[in-house]
Each structure stands twice: as structure tokens, then as C-alpha cells.
Amino acid sequence: MALMVLNTSFKGLFFMTSCTLIILKVTFFFITFIPSTSKLTIHDHDYLHFDMKPPVDQSAKSFNPDILTHSQYEDVVRILHEEQPTSTHVDGSNGGGNSPEVTGPPWQRGSGQHSMVNTSQAVVHDGGQPSAGSSKPSKKGRDLNNIEVYHDKDIFLENYEQMNKSLKIYIYPHQKTDPFANVLLPDTRSSPGGNYASESFFKISLSSSHFITHDPAEADLFFLPFSIASMRHDKRIGAGGIKNFIKDYISTIKREYPFWNRTGGADHFYVACHSIGRTAMDKAPEVRINAIQVVCSSSYFLQGYNAHKDASIPQIWPRPGVPPIRHPSEREMLAFYAGAMNSRVRESLVRTWMNDTEISVHQKRLKTPYSNSLLGSKFCIHAKGFEVNTARIGDAIYYGCVPVVLADHYDLPFADILDWSRFSVVVSTEDIPFLKKILKEIVDSDKYVKLQKNVLKVQNHFQWHRKPIDFDTFYMVMYELWVRRSSIRIRLFNE
Ligand SMILES: *[C@@H]1O[C@H](CO)[C@@H](O)[C@H](O)[C@H]1NC(C)=O
Ligand SMILES: *[C@@H]1O[C@H](CO)[C@@H](O)[C@H](O)[C@H]1NC(C)=O
Ligand SMILES: *[C@@H]1O[C@H](CO)[C@@H](O)[C@H](O)[C@H]1NC(C)=O
Ligand SMILES: *[C@@H]1O[C@H](CO)[C@@H](O)[C@H](O)[C@H]1NC(C)=O
């Protein structure tokens, strides 16, 4: 069925291509007309960012990447981070964040009709609909409490509305009988759980959303539906086979469909949450260079991720229902951290604060429920492990605990929409010895109360639903894709 639809549209598309297919590239507000006789390939994304781009140097450690070979460069990066090589990555590397949580009594996890304040919907639905079609945001009637978590709420809402109306995604179709259906199709039978749930939730949400089109001609973007986490668990592929699988998959897409070659993949995207995804494109460098990579491991220090082209997706442990509420005054512990010791940052954190009575740090899973600590602390520390990302930021936000981000070079999720300084504290890993001073100053001023309130306002952006709900993580990712769609196609018939 899907195939028939496809064949028909293909014919139409080839016909139009032979007439003249011109791709217009839109960069910000400037439209560049690029003359072309038939087809035009655009590499919208900066080639120079590939591989050897000198890292953004935030930590004042410097070296000259020009004199290094590729593998030397990787070594240097690794040594700078004093991490173990990627090949040692294992599931659950993020430590405590991978413990399945039973979060409080069932009435807290259920439909939430119990007194829980309307936190999950509080931010944007609060009379904040933009006036349709207005090009100038109206500043009138802006509720200061509401704009606080956004860089510019009006612009966000206006873009969001347009995105919601116009964005169209084409998913490469695969049959249920495909031997790799488990990797390529959304698994709608079971609810995804665990550390890498963001990967499967995205696919499930997308396939049930109104963004889908079966007509490639009207698609803004093409989704490569492979799942890295599923490949990893498939004995036929495994961690060692992922690179070849992707290489073969892209070759097939290139050969059997006309879409990839038109843009070199620039209007294609994939979603990956497992950290192994970072090297998964090694044998398909075009994906890394041109396609939009929506990944959890979004470090702009490391090769393979380009913040302006790719997008960060939050790693979220799914928790249904309305988040529990705990007032700041009842959060007695200043700060909390628990997790495996798999990075220098974590070691330094635990070594520095292990005997402290106000900052509670643990180098393994707690015997008491994780949720008690998240609800009982003012700040919840996210310390990078193998990668910059863990599920802890999502955990903290769910439990209304202000996240402390100890992960240098982390391109934080939705950072172009959300002003992270309004609901989190980003601390350089070099400032671990000053952590208590930094956090106490925030508590002693009014700032903590504001931060904590704002955490509740962003909760809806950090939640998955099987059927996506406006402004949830799925819609936020769609927004990020929409602002990154780099080309529009306009067909000119016999100009
Ligand atoms: C929930 O929100 C509605 C409308 O914004 C408001 O009238 C109501 O009082 C809120 N409920 C609670 C428990 O705060
Ligand atoms: C987004 O689109 C869906 C489907 O058309 C619609 O139900 C929803 O209200 C829209 N949201 C906004 C904020 O426009
Ligand atoms: C796309 O280009 C590749 C060469 O890079 C070629 O092998 C393939 O056949 C092309 N695909 C189509 C559909 O023309
Ligand atoms: C913490 O206490 C233990 C046991 O008293 C001691 O060995 C260790 O040096 C202390 N660590 C710090 C950072 O004070």
C-alpha cells in the first residue's frame, strides 16, 4: 500500500525533476537564488565543521589541532577529558540515572487529579497564544512570570504555530515483514523505558502525529527511521555492526530514492540517544556532514556534532502522570548527586563533597528511593559521565529540583528556545570546589525561589507522551527540526 503511493509520487517527482527542480536556499532572512539548469546539490552545513574543527575552548586548555592527525586529535580530546575511549561504552554508563524509578505512591503517578498544581500545562497554555499572523509580537499583556523561561516567548509561539501548521515529514517506508523491522519501525506495542527511551518515543510520537506526509514532494524533511539502541541489542548487528548497517542503509536510500542525492542528505535527519550513536556515522560521513543529527550526546567539544546543524534531544526517563510537588522550604538538603564513577568530573565531585552535610553525594545507587532525594533537595546535580548527557536533568526537572549542570561543552536541549539560566545553574567543572558557595549564594538571595518556580514551568517540555501533547518534548524537537530545515524546493515549469 505504502509502496503504491510511493511509486505514484515517484513518477510525478521524476517528471517534475525533468521539467526543472530548483532548490532555493534560505539562510535566515536572506534568500539566495542559486541558478541551476536541472538539479542542484546544496551542502548547506559547513564542511569545515567536519572532524578537525578546533574545539570551542572553554576550559582554557589549548592545543593546536592543525598539527594533529585524526586519531591524535581524538586522543587529545580524550586526554583533555580524561575519559575512557568510546569503545568501552556500555549500557547504563550513566550510572544512577538508569535505575527505573517508582516515583511515590500510585496516586501521584496516576491521573493526578489529586491537588497537584497544574504544573505540566502551566507555561504556555496560560493565555499565551500568539495573535495569529501578527509579525510584531505584542508586548502588551505579557505576564512576566510566563516569559521568564524563554528567550522570547512571542517569537517562540509564533514560530511554533507556523511549524505546527506547515512542517511535513516523510518517513522512509518499511514493511512489517522487513527482517530489520525491529530497528526501522516504531515499536508501538510496548512503552519504551530506560535510558534511551527518547529514541523510541520520538519515533512513536512522530508516526502518530499530523506532521507525517506520504507524499515526498511536500516533505520538508526526510526521516531516517533506524534506531541505534535497537541495533545495539540486535544480535545480528550488535555494537560492532552499527556502522556497516548505516552505511548499507544510506546506500540503499541513495540508490532507490531520488531524495538523498538532491541535497546530499541535508534535508534528512535521524534521532539517536545512545552514546554509541556518536561514532555510528563513521562509515557514512555524509550523514554526519549534511544530515540533521538529533542526538542526546550533544557536546560541541567533540567531533561529529555541529550545534548549528544538529539538535540536542533531552535524555528522559519516561514517567507518566503529573509530577509530584515539593515546596522549596521542605527541600532540606542543599544538593544531591548519586551515580557511577565513570568520569573525572564525577570523581572530583564525590571526592570534594563526600563528607559534607549539605551536599549529598554518593558513588553508587542509593538504598533509599531516588525520588526521595530528588524531592528532598534544593539542587540536583547532573555531572557528566562518559558523555555530557544523562537522564538526571530530566529527573531533576520532573521532581521540581533545580538542575545543576556540571558538563562543560554540553549543548543543552532547546537552548535556542529556553533560557537555561532561568531554571538551572550551569557550573564549570573547574568550579566544583566552589559549588557550595555558588549554590548557597543562590539560596540566600531570592534567586532560588524563582529558579525553582521556573523548573515547574518547563516540566511540560521535558516529558514524552505516546500520543504527543502540544509543547512536550516531541513538539520541541519538531520545532528544532523546523528551524533547521535548510532548503525549500520550488518547482518551475518551463520558466
Ligand atoms: C489550574 O488552572 C486553572 C486555570 O489556569 C485554575 O483556575 C485552577 O485554579 C488551577 N488549579 C490549581 C489546583 O491550581
Ligand atoms: C498543533 O496542531 C495540532 C493538530 O492540528 C492541533 O491539535 C494543536 O492545537 C496545534 N497546536 C497549536 C499550539 O497550534
Ligand atoms: C545517487 O548518487 C549515487 C552516487 O553517489 C548513485 O550511485 C545513485 O544511483 C544515485 N541515485 C539515484 C536515485 O540516482
Ligand atoms: C572524608 O572522611 C574520611 C573518613 O573520615 C576521610 O578519610 C577523608 O579524607 C575525608 N574526605 C574529605 C574530602 O574530607
TrEMBL record:
Residues 127-136 have a biased composition (Low complexity). GO terms for cellular component: Golgi membrane. GO terms for molecular function: glycosyltransferase activity. Residues 84-144 are annotated as: Disordered. It is found in: Golgi apparatus membrane. The chain crosses the membrane at residues 12-34. InterPro entries: Exostosin, Exostosin_GT47. It is a single-pass type II membrane protein. Keywords: Glycosyltransferase, Golgi apparatus, Membrane, Signal-anchor, Transferase, Transmembrane, Transmembrane helix. Residues 163-441 form the Exostosin GT47 domain. Residues 110-122 have a biased composition (Polar residues). Its main location: Golgi. Belongs to the glycosyltransferase 47 family. This is Exostosin GT47 domain-containing protein. It comes from Lactuca sativa. The lineage of its organism: Eukaryota, Viridiplantae, Streptophyta, Embryophyta, Tracheophyta.
